[in-house]
Amino acid sequence: MEVHSTRLGVLEIDETDVIRFEEGILGFSEYKNYAWLQAVGFKVEIDLLQSVDDADLTFILVDPFKYEPEYGFELSENWKHKLTIVSEHQVVVRTIMAIKGGECMTTNLKAPLVINTELKQAAQIVLEGVSYDLQHPIGGEA
């Protein structure tokens, strides 16, 4: 299938690379389907999440465990049920990265994306009762 991206041009992707966020991503709840482009190599290893429905909407994702080794959280039974997760082997966690000019990069550890890689279902989950940053520095000064 073809996916149009302002930043990346026309992408030819396999439909199995489309991830569905039933509740959308915070601030973008109307957009549910994204092409997940994994492990794009730049200065840091990133994934890209391109909206299937809006060429202007692209998120940069990182593996939070590479930047914060102590990072972790317990997924609630409610979220496991919503995402049909029965094994941790089905799950990939990514966080949204922001670039603030030059080398200044941060990632949102407070609201990770949890992806069921087998069923291609995902959700952005706001973690309660944790002190993770919305703008955790991952390169340069934040």
What is the C-level CATH assignment? Mainly Beta
In terms of structural class, how would the helical and strand content be classed? mainly beta
* Strand proportion: 35-45%
Radius of gyration based on Cα positions = 15 Å
CATH homology superfamily: BH3618-like
Give an overview of the whole structure:
The chain has a single domain, classed as BH3618-like. Helices cover 4% and strands 40% of the residues. The protein has one helix at 77-82; strands spanning 2-5, 9-12, 18-21, 33-41, 45-51, 58-62, 91-99, 105-107, 113-116, 121-124, 136-139. The chain has a seven-stranded mixed barrel with strand order 3-4-5-6-7-9-10. A two-stranded antiparallel ribbon has the order 1-2. Strand 9 and strand 10 form a beta hairpin. The model has no long low-confidence stretch (mean pLDDT 90).
